[in-house]
């Protein structure tokens, strides 16, 4: 005689609940294990350090390596129309400096020079840099900060002028750039001790970066 169907049907909900409970336990175990593995992985991998400012060169090297050639590319617009520059291709021995400068149009050169001058100017405020004579660059002084901000503004003005592709407007912008350079140089570069010879004499650099 077959078993009553009501008994089998009565057990089905209990079996379903049991299977659901087991499934939930397995899911919880897998989630917990994944969290432990992920935590261990994050803990094992070293976190990247925040970038640090490079202080490889002194102020003189920074000026001659970046500021002087870059600013001169902008000053050059006073007497040379960037639109008339021709891009040449060398077929013989290559002068890599000249070759690099011949890759772009004249106006592109001015754009890049003004952009670079704007971007590197905040380096004048990095603590720890020294001048040619070993003195610390006075980055904490209000006048030094003002000179730096004036340089940044002048470079940005030159950049905006370059975008107009108008030689006269860029030439006018160089006046502000020249003023920014000279204001700082008068105080922190050009002062000389009594008896110093012409530029190049070691005594000529004694007062560089010295507070007035």
Q: What are the key terms here?
A:
single chain; 212 residues; mainly alpha; Four Helix Bundle (Hemerythrin (Met), subunit A); 2 domains; 58% helix
Description:
- With 212 residues, the protein is mostly helical.
- It folds into 2 domains: 1-44; 59-205, Up-down Bundle (Four Helix Bundle (Hemerythrin (Met), subunit A)), CATH 1.20.120.
- Helices cover 58% and strands 0% of the residues.
- The chain has helices spanning 5-44, 59-75, 96-101, 106-120, 142-163, 167-188.
- The longest helix is centred in the N-terminal third of the chain and has 40 residues, at 5-44.
- The radius of gyration is 34 Å and the shape is globular.
- The termini are far apart.
Short structural description:
The chain is an all-alpha fold and 212 residues long. 58% of the residues lie in helices and 0% in strands. It folds into two domains: 1-44; 59-205, Four Helix Bundle (Hemerythrin (Met), subunit A), CATH 1.20.120.
């Amino acid at each position: 005689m077959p078993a009553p169907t009501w008994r089998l049907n009565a057990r089905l909900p209990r079996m379903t609940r049991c299977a659901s409970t087991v499934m939930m336990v397995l899911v919880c175990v897998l989630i917990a294990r994944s969290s432990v593995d992920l935590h261990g992985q994050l803990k094992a991998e070293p976190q990247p350090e925040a970038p640090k400012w490079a202080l490889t060169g002194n102020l003189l090297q920074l000026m001659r390596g970046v500021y002087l050639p870059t600013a001169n590319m902008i000053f050059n617009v006073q007497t040379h129309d960037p639109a008339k520059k021709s891009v040449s291709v060398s077929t013989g021995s290559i002068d890599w400096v000249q070759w690099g400068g011949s890759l772009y149009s004249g106006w592109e050169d001015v754009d890049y020079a003004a952009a670079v001058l704007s971007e590197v100017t905040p380096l004048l405020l990095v603590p720890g840099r020294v001048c040619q004579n070993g003195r610390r660059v006075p980055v904490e002084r209000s006048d030094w900060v003002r000179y730096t901000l004036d340089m940044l503004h002048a470079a940005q003005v030159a950049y905006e002028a370059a975008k107009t592709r108008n030689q006269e407007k860029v030439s006018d912008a160089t006046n502000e750039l020249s003023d920014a350079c000279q204001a700082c140089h008068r105080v922190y570069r050009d002062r000389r001790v009594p008896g110093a010879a012409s530029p190049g004499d070691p005594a000529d650099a004694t007062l560089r970066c010295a507070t007035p």
